[in-house]
Specification:
By secondary structure, this protein is an all-alpha fold. It contains eleven helices and no strands. The N and C termini lie close together (about 10 Å).
């Protein structure tokens, strides 16, 4: 559910690093609250950024219809669509697709991990079928756990905002190359940690899935059903969130309600 790569706030590690890359020129001030977007020309904002621009700028440039707003938000909520349709200019495809596949594998492993002896016993006493409530519960819990786990690990790949700030803010060639060199050293460390953790988790999950299939070989159909139910549940939640965000956004812009707009943006950024 959180596989999408949104323009989220840079975490504390990025903020700490930013103090090292900013040059000593007092005129250079990088605003990590993204208020610097207000100073950008409206023509420089592309469609991908319309969902995250500040309120005052959205009043000026967001002229989309209700349907266009919903489709844009929905596309960002669905990870697979987000990868291809709203891919970030500075994010490499191999990185985003690896995060997405990692989340799918994590979700499947959690479905198996939660398939305990109690669940097997219920299936045995229910003529080989799980109740709808049990199936939904397993899918929902595994989806939440896998989303949180992937979100924490994927934070190591959040570097695009910082790169955009360097490119758009640092004007002097020498200082620009100095900052890029420091940035590359920094991001190599973070991506190295990310891929190391990802490989370790993938090996553990694959091993666990092989063991699970060997022990519960008669429950593979049930696990597949639970996984599909979880995917459909995630899709339903994403659709509901997209509708809520779209409604709040349209109302806030039509009636100039800044607080409502900020609420819609908060939901969009966090969920």
């Amino acid at each position: 559910m959180i596989s999408k790569e949104k323009d989220s706030n840079i975490d504390l590690m990025n903020t700490k690093f930013s103090s090292n890359i900013i040059n000593k020129d007092e005129s250079l001030k990088i605003d990590f609250t993204f208020l610097h977007l207000i100073d950008r020309n409206d023509d420089e904002i592309d469609k991908r950024e319309l969902n995250t621009v500040p309120y005052l700028q959205a009043l000026r440039i967001d002229k989309r219809t209700k349907l266009e707003t919903f489709l844009s938000i929905f596309a960002n909520e669905i990870g697979f669509i987000n990868i291809f349709y709203y891919k970030n200019t500075y994010s490499h495809f191999s990185l985003t697709i690896s995060v997405y596949i990692f989340e799918l594998l994590f979700d499947l492993a959690m479905n198996c991990f939660l398939y305990t002896d109690d669940v097997v016993s219920e299936k045995y006493h229910n003529d080989g079928n799980l109740s709808l409530l049990t199936s939904l519960s397993l899918s929902f819990i595994s989806n939440i756990i896998s989303s949180i786990g992937v979100y924490i690990i994927a934070k190591l790949t959040n570097y695009t905002e910082l790169l955009e700030i360097i490119i758009s803010t640092v004007k002097k060639k020498k200082k620009y190359f100095d900052n890029i060199i420091r940035f590359m050293k920094y991001i190599k460390i973070r991506l190295g940690i990310f891929y190391f953790l990802q490989i370790i988790f993938i090996l553990l999950m694959i091993y666990y899935l092989f063991v699970f299939c060997a022990v519960y070989h008669q429950s593979q159909i049930s696990i597949t059903i639970n996984y599909i139910v979880g995917a459909l549940t995630s899709l339903a939640i994403s659709t509901a969130l997209s509708i809520i965000i779209s409604i709040l956004r349209v109302i806030s812009l039509n009636y100039q309600l800044q607080r409502v707009y900020n609420i819609s943006r908060y939901i969009y950024d966090r969920f």
